[in-house]
Amino acid sequence: MTTAKICGLSTPDTLAAAVRGGASHVGFVFFPPSPRHLGFDQAAALAGQMSQAAARVGVFVDPDDTLLDQAIAAGRLDALQLHKTGPERTAAIRARTGLETWAAVAIKTRADLDAVRAFAGAADRILYDAKTPPGAALPGGMGVRFDWGLLDGYRHPLPWALSGGLDPTNVAEAIRRTHAPIVDVSSGVESAPGVKDVDKIAAFLQATRP
Ligand SMILES: O=C(O)c1ccccc1N[C@@H]1O[C@H](COP(=O)(O)O)[C@@H](O)[C@H]1O
User: Fold this and answer.
1) Which residues contact ligand 1 via a Cβ below 6 A?
2) How many domains would you assign to the chain?
3) Mean pLDDT of 146-167
4) What is the DSSP secondary-structure string of 100-147?
5) Can you name the residues that pair with 79 across neighbouring β-strands?
6) Which residue of 5, 7, 196 sits with most ligand 1 atoms within 8 Å of its CB, as the best mutation to test the pocket?
7) What pLDDT sits at residue 137?
8) What is the distance in A from the centroid of ligand 1 to the CA of 95?
9) Which of the residues 12, 51, 114, 125 has the least number of beta carbons within 10 Å of its own beta carbon?
10) What is the DSSP letter of 63?
11) Strand partners, 59
12) Mean pLDDT over residues 81-88, rounded?
């Protein structure tokens, strides 16, 4: 069965919608340039409203230890999603924090998959994400999709998840095509950048079910 991560949540009602709708994971972004960035107080308040129904994943871009420590404590994080973070640093973060660690790998062409194997032994999960355009402010969260056919026949070296441009209208096809164990969405369940929509969250989660 495919489960879902709803990422970039920042309000109590949208977090509640994700948990109520059956999300296995919820994502909190700690990256100031993002419209979904959370302050530590905000993250603590959101974490405080949750039961253990969904795992809390912190999303980071090449974070330092101070940021990680503060975010882990505030958001009571269960897992870390690392963008633009190499295998060595990923392994060090995983060893130091003891938390489940996801390595986001940006994909546009088949050659981009070459970066994945280096994370074996360094990360717990690979997040195949679409490459955002050169010079983009964000390495994710921009609704960019990659060619899922690139994963056809690919032997995944680690547990994995799929993201990049997913939304309520295409996620069923993405699951059928890739057999992703986890699908991850951010902008596809928003009405504007950083503004999550409870109806779109519900529709996305409904569409992940067989
Ligand atoms: O969402 C963000 O603002 C963000 C910022 C920095 C790194 C990653 C970010 N989001 C992640 O990007 C993917 C795909 O997002 P989308 O569904 O295409 O909008 C997702 O994993 C988010 O967690």
Assistant:
1) 7-8, 27, 29, 31, 34, 36, 59, 61, 83, 127, 129, 138-144, 163-166, 184-188
2) 1
3) 97
4) EEEEEEEESSGGGGGGTGGGBTTBSEEEEEEPPPTT-S-SS-S-----
5) 57, 100
6) 7
7) 86
8) 24
9) 51
10) -
11) 29, 81
12) 98
Residue 73 structure tokens: 């404590």
Q: Read off the amino acid at residue 69.
A: D
What is the helix (H) or strand (E) element at residue 190, kind and residue range?
strand 190-192
Q: Which of 129, 160, 204 to mutate for ligand 1's pocket (most ligand atoms within 8 Å of CB)?
A: 129
pLDDT in tens, 131-140: 998 889 899 8
Active site residues: 7, 129
**For the CA of 166, the nearest atom of ligand 1:** 17
Ligand 1 geometric centre to CA of 185 (Å)? 7
Give how far the C-alpha of residue 142 lies from the chain's centroid of Cα atoms, to the nearest Å: 12
Q: Which residues contact 73 (CB under 8 A, 6 or more apart)?
A: 40
Alpha helices in 25-80 (DSSP H): 40-48, 65-75
CATH classification of the domain holding 147: 3.20.20.70
User: Which domain covers residue 169, as residue numbers?
Assistant: 3-207
The two structure tokens encoding residue 53: 């129904």
Q: Which atom of ligand 1 is nearest to the CA of 81?
A: 23
Nearest residue CA, atom 19 of ligand 1?
141
